[in-house]
User: Which sequence fits this backbone?
């Protein structure tokens, strides 16, 4: 679908700087059934090495014969002397493809590499070699066409050069020091008669057959016959996991681990992480913004909260992540994780009812078995009591990481830290610390992504007053 911000119908006249000098009253008025006036949508007149892949692309209506339009290359370089304004090249436009594009085909060193103007005119009756600016003052004196429908120029900055287009791309128009060898309208086929309509194409040929290219941020790919696009775009991947995956009715505490990977060609600054149920994740659990994530690098954090529902209900959380490049290009992706509410657990006849724990950080019973393990948030200390012999905790690594388990202020002192990988049914012991210290650091080295469990065994006296802290980092 082509988009025209502005239909430009020039009278038979000449362009003067940024304006139009009308030389007659003839207009290019369309009637019902006439095709849309085409646009110069993309051009390459200079690229790396020998210019074997020059081309000009026209965009218009699909499958439309535009043979009454002509592409002209007009000399503008001061070094040509009195030849400024000369028609160097004239190419008749053909029929557009199903998507509305037509190109000249790849030309071999046809177009000049200095200051030129590309004009798209209707009903051209001139000839190649004729001088349209007889007095070389930058104003066309002769206009052998009925309408000038589009124009774009390139200027290399030499003194005395002339351009005959109302939009000219100069050296440095986009911050790069050289004049462009090619450029594309971005967004595709949008025309506002201003320089920002145009984006420089990769000079080293990204997108052209046989060229590898070295595209930079905010450069366009070379895309003859197809929609214009940036050569490189930022991207990121996101995944979200939940621990546990099931909860007995009415629910309980769930830890969500969010993993983000920069899969694009630019460094990203993570500017937003939003859970659709709980809002912005900044400051929740270990999630903090902003975060700088280099090319192929990763960022992971975890957050938790209460999830509740009725038996059989599946509760789904969606995290939406936004990253921004230094030039304000944006990458967005999302990930989901679900928790299923299962059959409520009937308490045993001899169950002792404990006081309600108001803070999840001051978590007491029950977590005496692997299946009842209390979830930990990575890099966030949790506070607990050594009120009995066995306490189980669970955490999930979203990516392979170096892991340390830190125990602080464990007043009973006597006991074991054991760490297990896998699931409760087939967990494998991967580390332990049986030292008699109130403060311990169990270094597990590099561990793969996946679920893990900590079984903290108290072999000393129980303690209901002094909280210990447990951190996985």
Assistant:
């Amino acid at each position: 679908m082509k988009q025209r911000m502005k239909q430009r119908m020039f009278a038979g006249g000449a362009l003067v700087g940024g304006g139009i000098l009308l030389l007659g009253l003839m207009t290019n008025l369309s009637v019902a059934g006439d095709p849309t006036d085409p646009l110069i949508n993309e051009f390459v007149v200079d690229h790396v090495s020998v210019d074997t892949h020059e081309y000009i692309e026209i965009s218009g209506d699909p499958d439309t014969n535009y043979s009454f339009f002509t592409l002209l290359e007009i000399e503008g370089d001061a070094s040509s002397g009195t030849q400024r304004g000369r028609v160097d090249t004239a190419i008749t436009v053909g029929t557009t493809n199903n998507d509305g594009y037509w190109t000249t085909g790849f030309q071999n060193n046809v177009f000049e590499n200095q200051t030129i103007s590309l004009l798209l005119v209707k009903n051209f009756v001139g000839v190649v070699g004729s001088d349209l600016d007889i007095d070389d003052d930058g104003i066309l004196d002769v206009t052998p066409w009925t309408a000038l429908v589009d124009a774009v120029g390139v200027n290399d900055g030499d003194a005395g050069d002339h351009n005959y287009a109302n939009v000219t791309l100069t050296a440095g128009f986009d911050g790069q020091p050289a004049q462009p060898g090619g450029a594309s309208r971005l967004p595709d086929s949008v025309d506002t008669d201003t320089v920002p309509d145009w984006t420089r194409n990769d000079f080293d040929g990204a997108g052209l057959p046989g060229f590898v290219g070295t595209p930079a941020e905010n450069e366009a790919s070379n895309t003859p016959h197809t929609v214009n696009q940036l050569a490189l775009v930022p991207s990121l991947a996101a995944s979200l996991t939940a621990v546990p995956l099931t909860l007995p009715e009415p629910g309980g505490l769930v830890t969500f681990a969010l993993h983000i990977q920069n899969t694009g060609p630019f460094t990203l600054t993570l500017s937003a992480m939003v859970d659709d149920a709980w809002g912005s994740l900044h400051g929740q659990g270990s999630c903090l913004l902003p975060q700088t994530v280099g090319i192929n690098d990763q960022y992971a954090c975890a957050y938790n909260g209460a999830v509740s529902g009725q038996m059989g209900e599946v509760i789904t959380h969606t995290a939406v992540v936004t990253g921004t490049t230094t030039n304000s290009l944006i990458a967005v992706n999302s990930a989901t994780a679900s928790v299923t509410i299962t059959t409520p657990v009937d308490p045993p006849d001899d169950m002792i009812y404990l006081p309600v724990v108001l803070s999840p950080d001051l978590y007491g019973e029950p977590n005496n078995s692997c299946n009842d393990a209390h979830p930990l948030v990575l890099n966030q200390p949790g506070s607990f009591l050594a009120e009995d012999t066995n306490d189980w905790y669970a955490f999930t690594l979203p990516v392979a990481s170096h892991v340390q388990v830190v125990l602080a202020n464990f007043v009973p002192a006597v006991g074991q830290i054991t760490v297990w990988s896998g699931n409760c049914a087939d967990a494998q012991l991967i580390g332990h610390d049986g030292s008699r210290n109130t403060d311990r650091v169990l270094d597990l080295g590099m561990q793969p992504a996946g679920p893990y469990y900590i079984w903290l065994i108290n072999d000393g006296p129980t303690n209901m007053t002094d909280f210990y802290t447990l951190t996985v980092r």
Remarks:
- The chain has no helices and 31 strands.
- Confidence is low (pLDDT under 50) at residues 1-32, 347-364.
